[in-house]
Amino acid sequence: MASHTASAPGKIILLGEHAVVYGRPALAMAIDLRFRCKITPSDSVSINGWEIDRAKHPYTSHILNEHWSGGIDIETSSTIPSGSGLGSSAALCASLNAAIMASGGASDEEEIAQRSFDAELKTQGSASPVDTSASVHGQVIAVNLQGGRPLWDISHGGNNWNISHIDVPRMTMVIGHTGISAPTGPLVAKVRRYYDHSNFAKDIVDEIGSLTEDAALALSSGDRVGLGAMMTENHKLLSILGVSSRELDKLVDASLPYSFGAKLTGAGGGGSMVALTDRPDRVCEAIERHGGTPYIISSGQPGAMVEMD
Ligand code: MEV
User: Fold this and answer.
1) 172-298: which CATH number, 3.50.50.60, 1.20.1050.10, 3.30.70.890, 3.90.198.10?
2) pLDDT digit string (tens) for the chain, length 309 residues
3) Could you tell me if 48 and 92 are in contact, meaning their C-beta atoms sit under 8 angstroms apart?
4) 142 CB within 6 A, ligand 1
5) CA 170 to centroid of ligand 1, rounded, Å
6) What are the structural domain ranges in the chain?
């Protein structure tokens, strides 16, 4: 039976994670680590040769329940470490939805983004569409910010997220993975509890929103000094929200002497940080010296796409 394969990139959040869950702006960039899914219609439902355990594969199960009838063999491979803050679950959702749509002869970025957000939301309980939209579209996306090329709108729970494509000058960054797996759902829930009970937390979320608006201007004009300073400030605000960790702070501090700025990226708690730099080799050395795994990345990565077998 005919197989279909699609892949989708991981992502980093440049600014605005957590605050984006409450409808504030965010900036996200696709990275050149990818998740790949090959699907083949079948008599049973299996992943990588094993009958699917729905508890172990909640994103996949949700997508199959909503968008597939009958049996299916799914083969996956990924270069995105899971629980790394680099969008592995979003890339899984984007690549599986793209492969399923391709098997029906269709391809519609907006529909893939909607379906992928829905899978993240239902599985995590609380989410914004930033990770899934960044994975589906690739490149750099802005959420709830003026000035880009509008892509799509996604609404849920009284929030609306307006997603746009923005052109940015080529930039080099270094990701530092702590090696500590930190699932997004519990961290989003932790911030939600703080936000619901504290005006101080709401003020911090607002401050992250304003900072992200300023950072979008610095990003578009290629002002790396300004952008870096705002990334470092964003890290401090995320620490106040309680989502940094000793390991993340260590990698951020180690990178700063060779960077324009650095911050945790994604949900935090463990996972990864990112540094904006023109000395990537020095940052890589510093990250390795402090126990992290570095990856040099640059902008301009493609989004979800169908691949020929
Ligand atoms: C995780 O990559 C980003 C968060 O803002 C969660 C979300 O937006 O769904 C922490």
Assistant:
1) 3.30.70.890
2) 799 999 999 999 999 999 999 999 999 999 999 999 999 999 999 999 999 998 999 999 999 999 999 999 999 999 999 889 999 999 999 999 999 999 999 889 999 999 999 999 999 888 999 999 999 999 999 999 999 999 999 999 999 999 999 999 888 899 999 999 998 989 999 999 999 999 999 999 999 999 999 999 999 999 999 999 999 999 999 999 999 999 999 999 999 999 999 999 999 999 999 999 999 999 999 999 999 999 999 889 999 999 987
3) no
4) no
5) 24
6) 4-168, 172-298
Please give the distance, rounded to the nearest whole angstrom, from the Cα atom of residue 254 to the centre of ligand 1: 25
CA distance 181 to 246: 14
Per DSSP, the residues of 219-232 read HHTT-HHHHHHHHH
Q: Where are the beta strands (DSSP E) in the chain?
A: 4-15, 26-42, 45-47, 50-51, 71-78, 140-143, 149-156, 159-165, 172-177, 261-265, 272-276, 293-298, 305-307
Q: Which of 131, 278, 281, 309 is labelled catalytic?
A: 131
Q: Is the CB of 130 under 6 A from ligand 1?
A: yes
Q: State both tokens at 230.
A: 């705002």
What span, in angstroms and rounded, lies between the C-alpha atoms of 254 and 128?
30
Tell me the pTM: 0.96
The secondary structure of 232-246 as a DSSP string is HHHHHHHHHTT---H
- The question of whether 131 is a catalytic residue gets the answer yes
Are both 4-168 and 172-298 of the same fold?
no
Distance, first Cα to last Cα, the chain: 13
4-168, CATH topology level:
Ribosomal Protein S5; domain 2 (3.30.230)
- The first and second tokens of residue 289, run together, are 């010296």
